[in-house]
Design brief:
Blueprint lengths: L2 E8 L9 E2 L43 H17 L7 H16 L6 E3 L1 H11 L2 E4 L2 E6 L2 E7 L4 H4 L7 E5 L2 E2 L5 H8 L6 E9 L5 E9 L1 E4 L3 E6 L3 E6 L6 H15 L3 E5 L8 H9 L6 E6 L5 E5 L11 E5 L6 H11 L4 E4 L7 E9 L5 E12 L15 E2 L4 H5 L4 H11 L3
Parallel strand pairs: 13-14, 14-17, 17-18, 18-21
Antiparallel strand pairs: 1-19, 2-5, 3-20, 4-11, 5-6, 6-7, 7-8, 7-9, 9-10, 12-13, 15-16, 15-20, 19-20
Helix pairs in contact: 7-8
């Protein structure tokens, strides 16, 4: 077995550290498709012949044999005494690894993805998958929607960022793992799944309801735009995937040709993506300066700066955010807000201020697993850390249940009003 570096920096929101998309699930790429940074370093640990034992993941000179003797003593005791003995060896090892990453480091975003889950993540990174079209995490014990993917069945059914899924096809999912929930939400295209939803709106209103959603092939398009009345360009960024830079450049070329008077950048329900895409986007609007500072610990800090090759340095603009705005979309928002380049409108963003690096692990005939380890924290140009609290908008605009059900978008209305006031 070998461990190889994927040369990616993954910005995920997590079940602890995983964000899934119930399409063929997992955003980012989904999942998020996340952050590429070829400058970070890694090593390739040697492995033993034991079937993925903990000692197989560390160089031999770092293993404390006494500590691992304790592990195997507890292992044998559990195998002999646990009410559900003997247990599945692979699942016990996978659980021990996640315990080390998450409990040992008190880190909800580092995680080991067993082959089945890792395959789902890889499928979503490809950009097309079938299912409902929502990005998921376990939050406060609930299966929670991080963001619905625009123009998918989940989005069209009215699912919102922050909605909690309490049952799937009538079955209580409170004790299920995220992979079990995702498996239930998947199915043949054109078949239907029923989700039970608990919703808490921005104004505190609570609503419980069931929704039937027909599964479909999910094809993610990163960037869309249209010219609104009053010569205002509206750009919707779905995520920061591998092809986002190319899509962005094409759209910006069209916008420049249209010569709009102002621009709305909509990052609502954008759960993140590649760091390089975030830097590319900020560079379109700011001629100089840093986008983020990465802190790798022990005094190792690195700055990512704009390229200075943008085409939209002077256009008046606003950015729209909500609870589904996370990670690299927060990088873009935070940088442009710090430089006072854009007015931010909406409600507080998600609050994902760490960077993950992805390592693949070849398990032979069992498939390929991966380990996602938090290798850095990131900060805005003004050294703000968004973790947990998120970014606060310059202008707070909440959406009520009544407005949502009537198809009214007060955030967009305020954005247009704000731009018209300065044109």
């Amino acid at each position: 077995m070998s461990i190889k570096r994927l040369s990616q920096v993954f910005l995920a929101l997590g079940i602890t550290s995983m964000i899934f998309t119930a399409g063929l699930v997992m955003g980012y790429r989904y999942p998020g498709a996340l952050g590429l940074d070829s400058t970070t370093r890694t090593t390739s640990p040697s492995t033993s012949s034991r079937s993925l034992g903990l000692d197989a993941l560390l160089p031999k000179d770092t293993v404390n044999e006494q500590d691992f003797d304790l592990f195997w003593r507890v292992w044998n005791l559990a195998k002999e005494k646990h009410v559900d003995r003997p247990g599945d060896d692979d699942q016990l090892i996978y659980g021990a690894i996640n315990g080390m990453l998450q409990l040992g480091y008190d880190d909800q975003f580092s995680a080991f993805l067993e082959p089945e889950i890792n395959t789902m993540a890889s499928e979503d990174l490809s950009g097309s998958f079938g299912g409902v079209g929502v990005e998921l995490e376990i939050k406060n014990g609930y299966l929670t929607i991080v963001a619905p993917i625009p123009d998918t069945p989940g989005d069209k059914a009215g699912l919102l960022a922050g909605d909690m899924i309490t049952a799937i096809d009538g079955e209580d999912n409170s004790t299920w793992t995220i992979i079990e929930s995702v498996s239930k939400m998947r199915g043949q295209i054109n078949t239907t799944v029923r989700l039970s939803i608990l919703r808490i709106l921005d104004d505190g209103e609570i609503k419980e309801f069931d929704v039937d959603i027909k599964r479909a092939l999910i094809d993610v398009e990163s960037v869309k735009w249209e010219l609104l009345e009053g010569d205002i360009a509206y750009m919707k960024i779905r995520n920061f995937a591998a092809d986002t830079n190319a899509e962005w450049d094409r759209v910006v070329t069209e916008i420049v040709a249209a010569q709009p008077k102002a621009l709305i950048l909509d990052l609502r329900n954008n759960a993140g993506g590649y760091i390089t895409a975030a830097v590319h986007m900020v560079s379109e609007f700011v001629s100089g300066g840093k986008v983020i500072t990465q802190d790798f610990g022990q005094g190792d800090k690195r700055i990512m700066r704009v390229t200075g090759e943008g085409r939209l340095f002077d256009i008046p603009m606003v950015i729209l955010i909500n609870r589904g705005t996370a990670s690299s979309s927060e990088m873009v928002t935070g940088a442009l807000q710090d430089y006072e380049r854009a007015t931010v409108i909406g409600v507080n963003s998600y609050g994902k201020g760490v960077i993950q690096e992805i390592f693949s692990i070849d398990l032979g005939d069992k498939g390929e697993a991966s380990v996602r380890i938090v290798t850095a924290r990131w900060y805005t140009p003004n050294d703000r850390w968004v973790q947990d609290d998120g970014l606060e908008p310059d202008i707070e605009v909440k959406t009520t249940m009544e407005q949502y059900e009537q198809g009214i978008d007060p955030v967009m209305e305020r954005a247009i009003e704000e731009l018209q006031g300065i044109l």
